[in-house]
Amino acid sequence: EPEVTQTPSHQVTQMGQEVILRCVPISNHLYFYWYRQILGQKVEFLVSFYNNEISEKSEIFDDQFSVERPDGSNFTLKIRSTKLEDSAMYFCASSSTVPEAFFGQGTRLTVV
Amino acid sequence: LAKTTQPISMDSYEGQEVNITCSHNNIATNDYITWYQQFPSQGPRFIIQGYKTKVTNEVASLFIPADRKSSTLSLPRVSLSDTAVYYCLSSTYNNNDMRFGAGTRLTVKP
């Protein structure tokens, strides 16, 4: 069964450093998403991406965040200068038809 | 997008049917109702979606009354492995703004 793949599974970074979280969506999907989930809290929408551009973003997705689809397969989330409160699980998802999205296993980001 | 409201938590026992209700009073004409399941340390998993009346798949049933202001996810004969958080979403088909609410934490007891 096709799946969304995220790397790394766990990343530890120092406050102020840049991180790039990587995702390989399911190959024929057209819609891509990033979510985050702080431990014990709900899944929070960050951004959605369609046709090589951001289609929706939340108030969390400020200038410190950016997304890119650098080639035909990868979808990345960059956090330019990490803060302690960026520590969370980050989920990538993709879909061919909204709202049935497929989620990856997540990247646990720990900012120290 | 319509805001959805769900109970924070529910308890059940193995073998019982569980019904989780979601309220979406301001649902728009073009909105669909979708349910996701999330286990600890995993990404959400799509369960079922519907627009009106009843939809059934191998996992669950979804009941949406004619006024569409609420919906009910029905899980038949739950087992311990159904312990998870269940999220109800309202979203427009092919409008990719999918925001999760607080979800319902279902605990299935032996």
Structure, explained:
The complex is a heterodimer of chains A (112) and B (110). Chain A has 112 residues and is an all-beta fold. Chain A has no helices and 11 strands. In chain A, strands 2, 4, 5, 6, 9, 10 and 11 form a 7-stranded mixed sheet that branches. Chain A has a 4-stranded antiparallel sheet with strand order 1-3-8-7, with no helix packed on it. In chain A, strand 4 and strand 5 form a beta hairpin. Chain B is mostly beta strands and 110 residues long. Chain B is built from no helices and 9 strands. In chain B, the strands form 2 sheets. Chain B has a 5-stranded mixed sheet with strand order 1-9-8-3-4, with no helix packed on it. A 4-stranded antiparallel sheet of chain B has the order 2-7-6-5, with no helix packed on it.
Q: What summary fits the major beta sheet of chain B?
A: 5 strands, mixed
| N- and C-termini, Cα separation of chain B | 38 Å
Helical percentage of chain B: under 10%
Q: Beta fraction of the residues of chain A?
A: over 45%
Helix content of chain A: under 10%
Radius of gyration of chain B: 13 Å
Sheet-strand content of chain B, in percent, reads over 45%
Number of continuous helical runs of chain B: 0
Task: State mean pLDDT of chain B (0 to 100 scale).
Answer: 92
Kindly report the average pLDDT value of chain A: 94
Structural class of chain B: mainly beta
Q: Give me the oligomer status.
A: heterodimer
Unreliable spans of chain B: none
Number of strands of chain B: 9
Number of strands of chain A: 11
Whole-number radius of gyration of chain A?
Answer: 13 Å
Instruction: Give the helices and strands of chain B as they follow along the chain.
Output: EEEEEEEEE
Strand order of the largest sheet of chain B: 1-9-8-3-4
Question: Which word captures the global form of chain B?
Answer: globular
DSSP helical segment count of chain A: 0
